[in-house]
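Lab meeting, item 3. Inverse folding demo.
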């Protein structure tokens, strides 16, 4: 039995959301998700437009073009409708490798992302006077989640009151 995790549309969407949020502070819009999903299935803009009741020109020249431009900036490489899958897959594999190497360097914890909880925490912590209660059973990763949030706030240069 192969224990290898397959790169799926769901993973690609979550990665795109993660990198876009890190770069712009915004997530994929519903229309951008529709374009991403249709592109994943190798559908033409015309076919995607028919299925979601948009004008083909609006979808391809407005939403599609902007999506690929934003993803290009977020991923740090040129992305288009034809190559976005491989670009996201490379980021995913790089992320998996860094988790494995950090584990093999003596760390006993591997951080598992919790979408959308993590994203909600990132948005919430940016609000003035934000307080995030974290409650879960023992050994569920509360401290690791808190460390992720603290590291995120440090990247955003937010003052923490101890």
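The presenter then showed the designed sequence:
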């Amino acid at each position: 039995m192969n224990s290898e995790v397959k790169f799926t549309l769901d993973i690609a969407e979550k990665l795109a959301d993660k990198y876009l949020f890190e770069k712009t502070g915004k997530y994929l819009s519903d229309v951008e998700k529709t374009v991403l999903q249709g592109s994943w299935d190798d559908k033409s803009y015309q076919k995607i437009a028919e299925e979601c009741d948009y004008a083909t020109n609006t979808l391809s020249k407005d939403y599609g073009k902007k999506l690929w431009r934003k993803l290009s900036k977020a991923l740090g490489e040129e992305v288009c409708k034809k190559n976005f899958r491989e670009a996201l897959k490379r980021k995913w594999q790089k992320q998996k490798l860094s988790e494995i190497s950090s584990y093999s360097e003596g760390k006993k914890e591997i951080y598992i992302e919790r979408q959308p909880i993590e994203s909600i925490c990132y948005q919430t912590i940016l609000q003035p006077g934000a307080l995030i209660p974290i409650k879960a059973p023992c050994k569920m990763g509360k401290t690791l989640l808190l460390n992720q949030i603290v590291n995120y706030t440090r990247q955003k240069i937010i003052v923490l009151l101890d």
